[in-house]
User: Which sequence fits this backbone?
């Protein structure tokens, strides 16, 4: 076959002096392939039926058959053959007569896109020969019987991933006879973490099961002192999700020839997951109003979002960081790139990567919201993808940070990564992509700075340990939490940490040294702040404790400010102000309680029910300022889920979701969602209102099709209350 097939349509290509053929970035488009490609004039007596002819091709593509079993693709709800690159798979060809290797010559052709070219990896002719070489294209006959042969086909461990069209070509003296276009033989080729030659090879079977094959995960949220978790359905095997993920690469206009490279795929995907600058998958909204869309907290998984985008081609509204990360994780696992969702507690959103978050205080020591522009996110979610980094020096492969949440532009687009976790830990932030930004997210310091009347800045306090204080992901093989802070940074205060920081500064991360600023803190008095466990709708108490380690008596003028904040740390409103004078006796501790009433905060509460408390105290005798800030999350009630009836594959069962309204008000516009990955597609139900203290009950009947351990995930959303979740593990028995 010539490299670009000549048809009438090809001759009418638009004239373009820049390139011979138009860009090739659609996996869906096709070219016409002739069934008879003549070498010249065909003699009159020629009859194609006289030659070897393909009658049928059998792909062994059922979930229980050899290909999907050996390639770990049996979970995909997709009728076509799905295999992983660099590993052999089998097909059977039935001819019109027995195959005679001495005289018959045939080969296979895999094609992708509208302009297949051999040097671009989009046209792959595979001759049938002897032994297969690992990780290289090849085919050999492993069984012959009557008119049939069975072939073992090896794909290249670096081939592009996506959907290929398959043709069988037979050589005759007068031309090449080809099989007719048959979509039933289309073959998806994915990344292969089981293959040592693949760039995404992962050597631990338990980790492969978790990071590639697990279709449910956990999102950790809340804050470091009060960690909350919820399940998220990745659903990478659900119907049409694979096609939706391939469409994302078309949408991002990634050339087909670049699709074998996980670095390129991650980079373009981190841009196309968000809708900024390219009408990507999810539109972000952080302002608590979600008109004409779904509140970010209401989603229970990625499938609805990806399928809605695949059909409408319009950004899906709305997402926040864990939604971008959840969908990105689905995309990566679906294509076969090992991936996990990460939460960084107290994440610095630093606009100029200077490792310094400035909180400005006024003369009294209160935080000046007008001047303070930096924000500390209670938590921020991103992803890690596993791959080699041949573009970097040795040692920087492994987990790479990729982030689909639009925060800063990188090379002109809202995207982030892949950045090597190892490079971030050691301060080698010169290595692409976006390492300085991620380094600042986990390593910044908080400066409390007072503005003098004449404009000079006095640093009153520096908090070096709050940012990036805890970095976590779901544990392998369970629902617990795994602390991976040590993978991102050395222990606070260690020599290695100082060396990593000096390295990062050498490579251009801006860090103002403390010597540049006039900073003499008050060292003989400590101030601490604790909050009682707070339940939504109830009063709770906070306690400020001073410890005077000196032999002097001090008085401290103390300001307490309670703010309702978005989880990004941006304040919406101050709901509590309190100031008092504290007498600090020598060598002793003293505590002061402040009561927070539900009537003070309920009216303005935002969906993640999160508060930010600032306490600043001026020691009157020395003029020095102590400062502490803390995020507090309210305990939000959960949904109760139970099942009724037998839990057997193929039999109808019932799920009952219950919720009792704990607030002293009626909940309006209530929506419930329920989904069970691999068992139940998302179901939504609207309820008008739930009066205070009353209980809502919703029963859903459905028939699970597959046996095994499954998870049901539910969410409730309303005008006054969001982030209400429930989940239940269910074991579906075999019939």
Assistant:
């Amino acid at each position: 076959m010539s490299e670009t097939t000549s048809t009438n349509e090809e001759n009418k290509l638009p004239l373009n002096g820049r390139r011979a053929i138009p860009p090739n970035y659609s996996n869906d488009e096709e070219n016409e392939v002739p069934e008879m490609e003549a070498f010249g004039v065909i003699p009159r007596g020629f009859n194609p039926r006289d030659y070897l002819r393909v009658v049928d091709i059998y792909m062994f593509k059922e979930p229980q058959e050899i290909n999907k079993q050996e390639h770990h693709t049996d979970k995909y709800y997709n009728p076509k053959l799905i295999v992983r690159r660099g590993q052999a798979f089998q097909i059977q060809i039935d001819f019109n007569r027995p195959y005679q290797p001495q005289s018959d010559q045939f080969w296979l052709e895999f094609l992708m896109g509208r302009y297949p070219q051999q040097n671009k990896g989009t046209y792959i002719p595979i001759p049938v020969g002897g032994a297969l070489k690992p990780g290289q294209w090849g085919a050999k006959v492993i069984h012959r019987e009557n008119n049939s042969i069975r072939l073992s086909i090896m794909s290249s461990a670096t081939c592009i991933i996506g959907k290929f069209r398959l043709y069988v070509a037979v050589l005759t003296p007068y031309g090449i006879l080809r099989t007719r276009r048959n979509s039933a033989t289309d073959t998806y080729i994915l990344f292969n973490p089981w293959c040592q030659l693949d760039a995404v090879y992962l050597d631990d079977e338990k980790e492969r099961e978790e990071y590639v094959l697990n279709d449910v995960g956990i999102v950790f949220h809340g804050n470091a002192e009060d960690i909350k978790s919820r399940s998220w359905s990745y659903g990478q095997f659900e119907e049409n999700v694979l096609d939706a993920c391939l469409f994302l690469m078309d949408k991002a206009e990634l050339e087909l020839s670049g699709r074998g490279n996980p670095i390129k795929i991650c980079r373009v995907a981190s841009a196309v997951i968000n809708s900024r600058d390219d009408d990507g998958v999810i539109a972000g909204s952080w302002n608590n109003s979600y008109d004409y869309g779904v509140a970010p907290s209401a989603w229970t998984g990625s499938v609805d979002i990806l399928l809605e985008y695949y059909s409408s081609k319009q950004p899906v509204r709305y997402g926040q960081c864990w939604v971008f990360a959840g969908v990105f994780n689905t995309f990566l696992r679906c294509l076969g790139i090992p991936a996990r969702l990460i939460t960084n507690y107290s994440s610095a959103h630093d606009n100029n990567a200077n490792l310094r978050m400035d909180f400005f205080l006024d003369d009294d020591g209160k935080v000046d919201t007008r001047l303070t522009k930096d924000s500390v996110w209670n938590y921020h979610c991103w992803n890690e993808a596993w791959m080699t980094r041949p573009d970097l020096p040795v040692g920087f492969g492994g987990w790479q940070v990729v982030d689909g949440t639009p925060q800063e532009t990188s090379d002109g687009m809202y995207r982030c990564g892949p950045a090597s976790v190892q490079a971030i830990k050691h301060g080698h932030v010169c290595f692409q992509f976006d390492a300085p930004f991620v380094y600042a997210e986990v390593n910044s310091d908080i400066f409390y700075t007072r503005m003098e009347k004449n404009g000079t800045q006095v640093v009153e306090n520096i908090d070096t340990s709050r940012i990036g204080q805890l970095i976590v992901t779901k544990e392998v093989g369970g629902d617990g939490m795994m602390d991976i802070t040590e993978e991102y940074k050395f222990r606070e205060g260690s020599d290695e940490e100082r060396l990593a920081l000096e390295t990062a500064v050498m490579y251009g991360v801006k860090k103002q040294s403390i010597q540049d600023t006039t900073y003499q803190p008050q060292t003989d008095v400590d101030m601490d702040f604790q909050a009682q466990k707070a339940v939504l709708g109830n009063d709770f108490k906070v306690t400020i404790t001073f410890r005077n380690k000196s032999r002097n008596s001090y008085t401290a003028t103390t300001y307490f400010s309670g703010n309702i904040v978005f989880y990004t740390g941006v304040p919406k409103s101050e709901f509590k102000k309190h100031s008092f004078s504290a007498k600090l006796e020598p060598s002793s501790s003293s505590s002061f309680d402040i009561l927070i009433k539900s009537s003070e905060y309920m009216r303005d509460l935002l969906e993640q029910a999160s508060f930010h408390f600032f306490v600043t105290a001026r020691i009157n005798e020395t003029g020095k300022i102590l400062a502490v800030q803390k995020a507090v999350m309210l305990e939000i009630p959960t949904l109760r889920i139970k099942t009724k009836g037998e839990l057997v594959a193929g039999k109808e069962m019932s799920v009952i979701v219950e919720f009792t309204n704990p607030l002293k008000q009626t909940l309006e516009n209530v929506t419930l969602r329920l989904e069970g990955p691999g068992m139940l597609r998302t179901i939504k139900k609207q309820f008008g209102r739930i009066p205070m203290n009353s209980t809502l009950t919703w029963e859903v009947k459905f028939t699970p099709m597959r046996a095994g351990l499954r998870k049901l995930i539910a969410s409730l959303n309303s005008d006054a209350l969001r982030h209400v979740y429930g989940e239940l593990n269910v074991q579906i028995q075999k019939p």
Remarks:
- Confidence is low (pLDDT under 50) at residues 1-12.
- The chain has twelve helices and 40 strands.
- The chain has four domains: 36-190, 215-507, 525-633, 640-732.
